Amino acid sequence: MVAPRANWKGFIKFGEVAFPVALYTAASTSERIAFHTLNRKTGNRVRREFVDGETGDPVEREDQVKGFEIEDGRYVVLEPEEVAAAIPESDKTLKVEAFIPFEEVDDVYFDKPYYLAPDKMGSDAFKLLRDGMEKAKVAAIARTVLFRRLRTLLIRPHGKGLVGSTLNFDYEVRSSEAAFEEMPDLKIEGEMLELAKHIINTKKGEFDPKQFDDRYEAAVAELVKAKIEGRTLPKKKAPPPPKPSDLLQALRESAGMAAPARAKRTAANANAGKNRQKAARASAPKSRSSGGAHQRRAG
Question: Which molecular-function annotation in GO is an example for this chain (predicted)?
Answer without folding.
Answer: double-stranded DNA binding
